[in-house]
Specification:
Layout (H helix, E strand, L loop, with lengths): L2 H14 L1 H145 L4 H16 L2 E9 L9 E10 L2 E7 L5 H18 L5 E5 L5 H9 L3 E3 L3
Parallel strand pairs: 3-4, 4-5
Antiparallel strand pairs: 1-2, 2-3
Helix pairs in contact: 1-2, 2-3, 4-5
């Protein structure tokens, strides 16, 4: 049978025979399913290969990561050892520093103790010195008072004998008694005051100087002392210091009489006044 006839016959069967048509349709569907299954199997094989490759890559990467993690753990362990060694050195140095600080504190405490002892000893020596100075000053004051009392008796005797007709005679007699009774060397100091600092106009300035134990004492001897006399004597002392460049250690006024204003002014100016002569 020719191909054309066969085709014609086949198509007629498809049109006329329902069962035949369903059988052919079933065969055609099965073939398509088989082709699809073949394609699916090929795809599964490819997926399996990809999966196997991915698993191999994963295993290889996991192995590499394991090695890298092991190296990191080793480095961390070494770092921990270095840190522990560093902390140990730090603790040793810290302990050493605290030991030095403790020793320094002990040395400072010992130094402060010696300083306190030396300061206490110095205070005791100063108190002894001040006491000795006060005793010597009291003795000197007592000797001076005794001397002034003796001067008073001599002045009384002079007054009874010569009448003390002038202040000049009084001053000269008292000056000689001071030298004899106190052992002072009394000198008369005279300088020209061109500026008029002492008396308010240019004039000679005279004052008695007593030298005792290398100390300079200015002495003013008057039969009567008022406030102006005290102020004038103070200016004399300042003028002496300006001219000689030496500050007198004491300023003394000797007089049988001084009024209250003169005594108050002398106290303010730190001038000693001895009366009763």
């Amino acid at each position: 049978m020719e191909t054309s006839e066969l085709k014609s016959r086949f198509f007629a069967l498809l049109r006329e025979d329902v069962e035949f048509r369903y059988a052919v349709a079933g065969l055609l569907g099965l073939e398509e399913i088989l082709r699809r299954l073949d394609r699916h199997e090929a795809e599964l094989i490819r997926l399996r290969e990809d999966f196997n490759k991915m698993r191999e890559d994963f295993n290889r990467k996991a192995e590499e990561d394991s090695k890298r993690f092991a190296a990191i753990e080793t480095e961390i362990a070494r770092l921990r050892e270095d840190m522990n060694a560093g902390f140990k050195r730090h603790d040793e140095e810290f302990t050493k520093v605290w030991g030095e600080i403790a020793k320094l504190r002990e040395d400072m405490i010992e130094g402060f103790r010696r300083h306190d002892e030396e300061l206490a000893k110095l205070r005791e020596d100063m108190m002894v010195g001040f006491k000795r100075y006060d005793e010597e000053l009291a003795k000197l004051r007592a000797d001076m008072m005794e001397g002034f009392n003796l001067l008073r008796r001599h002045i009384d005797a002079l007054g009874a004998r010569w009448g003390l007709l002038s202040e000049r005679a009084f001053k000269e007699g008292l000056r000689s008694l001071i030298e004899r009774e106190f052992g002072f060397r009394v000198e008369r100091w005279v300088r020209w005051d061109s500026e008029g600092y002492v008396h308010g106009h240019p004039s000679d300035v005279d004052v008695d100087i007593a030298v005792h134990d290398e100390k300079i004492i200015l002495v003013e001897v008057k039969s009567h002392v008022g406030r102006p006399d005290v102020s004038t004597f103070k200016r004399k002392a300042e003028f002496y210091e300006r001219v000689e460049g030496k500050k007198p250690s004491r300023l003394i006024i000797v007089t049988p009489y001084a009024d209250e204003n003169a005594l108050e002014t002398a106290k303010q100016l730190q001038i000693e006044v001895y009366m009763g002569v």
